[in-house]
């Protein structure tokens, strides 16, 4: 369990953050620039010291103002992948990777050099200096260096912010492998929703130095009151589905979840594999009955849960689809005419899906939203 | 054939020794000063900075005079050293080393400080998260990265130390074989009838040493920068 509660004055504003999250997987601290996200992980690493509060990871107490505990950074064994990599310029990639490893007693070394080099594809870079590496390569070395220090927790500060889209697509699968194969809890800071949606298990929404929401990504993303914090453009729900079957003759794949099925362009995953989709509110249409003579193929039985104004003329409608949620952004006039009140059964038509490129092996690599 | 007379050889070797000792003793202090001045802000920093640079702008004779007053056998510090340890600086080669160490100190600090200020502070934070304590970080991160400034600073300061005249002659006088370094020997030669040839030879040596030192400094700094991956 990650149990954190900190208060810290930062110039004009006060950081007052408290949340708990399970250690497994990726906890994403999401919010706008300047919301205080990085200050939170700097406090976890010990690089800054909160005025008061506590930071407990599992049974390790790193900071506790009441008990006067403040473990120095170098004793915490918390890996940190900085936004700007911060590789040591005077050392080769190999020496960089071994820097933390050599400072851990042999008996405590669970993560070995070879597998990490393999996992991150660093074999051909070992004898080079950081100076000649691309941004993506530098960031991969930084991941490896942090991992080999045998951390009990890995922090990442916008690890992809300095990378272009292509480099980002190159790095993402590596982070997924870290998450899925290394079994080290990760706390990641991000202001890019696509990263959070793709990588996070738990989402902590931070705004103006406070926690606005915390919970599983799908739950937090499904809340209407948070679209101002998550960014109005990207408002939408997140669904976790599994691959049910492929329809090769049409180039389609059928995905299943507890609310029904979605048919999408072919996903290169074996049946049974899990897929996460981000469905933008502007790509969901609400109908009163099962429509006929429409090109949209994905129609899900849903129930209106909540309606909230989201602009001068628009409203966001939160729909329960099985145990999951969708959000539809429609006009307020439509809400009135269709009489969309909580409890009303409707049909949700999904006309676009944002795949996170690469995560699904989708053929339309690079396009964020595909029509379905 | 002997190019140099024994007296001239003595002066050259003495200069090398005096400058060598001065740099060896001054360098660790210069690294510390450069580190503190380049990295930290503290009350009185401007004053400390000024004191470090003072020998650069003071007439060397004044530096020598201050040393004479404080470090002479009757001076506050010098007297104590003499009474307690029997160490005598005045009129000795060790005293000459002290004098040139003081005058060349700012040159070292300036060069090293430039290197220190160029080091990304984030690297140290990264090293901390990887389990490196303060001493560890100093030797594995900071020292290698300040090496270019350290080397070029030390060499330039060495060359300047070999050439220091005013502070040396004021503090330890001009005693052949003991405190008569190259510039002092040149000065002595110009004061003697028929000493022009000696002065010219010694001046050429000084010229050569200075030029070689400057070139070596550039070359080494370049080489070290490549070694630590900065170019």
Structure notes:
The complex is a heterodimer of chains A (372) and B (231). Chain A is an alpha+beta fold and 372 residues long. Chain A has 2 domains: 2-221, Rossmann fold, CATH 3.40.50.300; 236-371, OB fold (Dihydrolipoamide Acetyltransferase, E2P). Helix content of chain A is 23%, strand content 37%. In chain A, α5 (135-148) runs parallel beside α6. Mean pLDDT of chain A is 86; it is low at 357-367. Chain B has one domain (6-227): MetI-like fold (Orthogonal Bundle), CATH 1.10.3720. Helices cover 79% and strands 0% of the residues of chain B. The longest helix of chain B is centred in the first third of the chain and has 34 residues, at 6-39. The model of chain B has no long low-confidence stretch (mean pLDDT 90). The interface between A and B is medium-sized, with 29 and 21 residues.
Question: What keywords describe this structure?
Answer:
heterodimer, A: 372 residues, alpha+beta, OB fold (Dihydrolipoamide Acetyltransferase, E2P), 6-stranded mixed beta sheet, 5-stranded antiparallel beta sheet, B: 231 residues, mainly alpha, 10 helices, globular
